[in-house]
Amino acid sequence: MRATNDTVSSRIEIARAELTPIQFATGLLFAAAIAFVLVFLQEPLAHDAMHNFRHAAGITCH
Amino acid sequence: MIVDYLQRGILAGVVAGLAYGMYMAFVANPLSEYLHDTQHEHGHDEHGHDDHGHGHGHGEHVHEHAEHAVSETTTALVSIGSGALWAIFLGGLFALALYVLEPALPGPDGIKTYVLAGAGFISVSVTPWLVLPPAAPGAEQLYSIESRLAIYVALIALGAVVSAASIAAYRRTATRHPAIGVAAGAVPIAAMLAVVPSITPTVVTHPELSSALVSAYRALAVLSQAAIWVLLAGTFNWLQRRADPATAVDGSHETLTTKQ
User: Fold this and answer.
1) Where is the stretch described as Disordered (chain B) (predicted)?
2) Which of A48, B152, B154, B168 could make an SS bond with B69 (beta carbons 3.0 to 4.6 A apart)?
3) In angstroms, rounded to a whole number, what is the distance separating the alpha carbons of residues B5 and B9?
4) pLDDT digits 0-9 by tens, B44-85
5) In Å, how far is B48's CA from the nearest CA of chain A?
6) Which residues of A touch B (CB under 8 A)?
7) How far is B2 from chain A (nearest CA, A)?
């Protein structure tokens, strides 16, 4: 593969070749876990504790 | 290779997270608490410290005076931690996006990261803020949390589309002259900045704060988020150069081919 053939799809192919299915599954599982934690952070206690950060960062979910 | 990228992205996130954590500790925390306290001092009785709105007759308004579930110290510490983790989270996403999108980004290698960081800033921060600007403590919101979250997600998608359109416009026209490319690339962003605020209602108001104070608060939010992205891109570049000094000048494509 020459440098000029470096495209978005070739990057995805490289990642597929590099990562084993187990690594890929681990990544997906971890992403799912993070998404779950983000939902959990809507709980009032965690939500209130992040009060200053949410305002300072301009994140809307408050 | 994707693992190397992720590693650099997380490290860059740690650097940006430390800086943003310091900002939270020394600027944002005291400022938020100050704003919160001033409004409580001359707060009126109808601003009860509960979630059930207030007696203004506008049932749909959501009022922001309900953060006494935890102490101020806890809030300060958790806010610092959240700030640091936020930057690390962005760093990881940035690295994964850079790995996939790097071939499609314009400019030499040291610039590509900044282009992507700019696109990230526009998508994650600027576009949502056009409708839902950063709210200081004590803000009154027109919509409920659910609809605001939906608007937020939709605007992130819009921001990503506009960023992509801007980069595509640059790539198409920059072959003639880079300056023309930059001008063409600026058009989609300028159009969005002009159109979106003018067609959407004002959904956040601060009845108890002066407008200058609110503007300053918003400017701090904008600048601090922009600083996170600049730090991410800059640190990522530095780590990449350090890991691979030979390819720093003319791109990482060689690394890519030799590792095949």
Assistant:
1) 40-66
2) A48
3) 6
4) 444 434 444 343 444 444 444 554 668 888 899 999 999 999
5) 16
6) 1-3, 6-8, 10-12, 14-15, 18-19, 34, 44-46, 48-58, 60-62
7) 6
